[in-house]
Design goal:
Layout: E1 2-5, E2 8-11, E3 19-23, H1 35-42, E4 47-49, E5 52-54, E6 68-71, E7 74-76, E8 87-93, E9 109-114
Parallel strand pairs: 6-9
Antiparallel strand pairs: 1-2, 3-8, 4-5, 6-7, 8-9
């Protein structure tokens, strides 16, 4: 099985960084009301508050601390409109695995691939 990381994909057995992968199986993503419930229910170490995903905790009082969202390889500002039934896979990147995204990925990255 391959996981999405920065520049491409890597075999799961070669992965040594902080990353989590979840793939749609048996259409079970449709059991969630929205994408935030799906992320909150399936990924440990991830906090969801409203329509924001926090991978490294709530962070500072002044800076933006929500995760960077990548949808089908393109950066997007919001994922609240995505139905869980449309999702093929979700990858959560943190630490050095998110370094490819620079400062924007400093709070972690949520990579979502949808069924096309």
């Amino acid at each position: 099985r391959e996981l999405a990381v920065g520049y491409g994909y890597i075999n799961e057995e070669d992965l040594i960084y902080a990353a989590s992968h979840l793939e749609q199986e048996n259409n079970d993503f449709c059991n969630y009301a929205n994408i935030f419930d799906l992320i909150k229910g399936r990924f440990s170490g991830v906090t969801v508050s409203g329509n924001n995903v926090y991978i490294r905790g709530s962070g500072s009082f002044t800076g933006q601390t929500q995760a960077l969202y990548i949808l089908n390889g393109v950066e997007t500002g919001s994922i609240d409109w995505i139905s869980p039934c449309q999702i093929k896979s979700i990858d959560i990147l943190k630490d050095s695995n998110a370094a490819i995204y620079g400062a924007r990925g400093g709070n972690g990255v949520v990579i979502i691939n949808t069924n096309k």
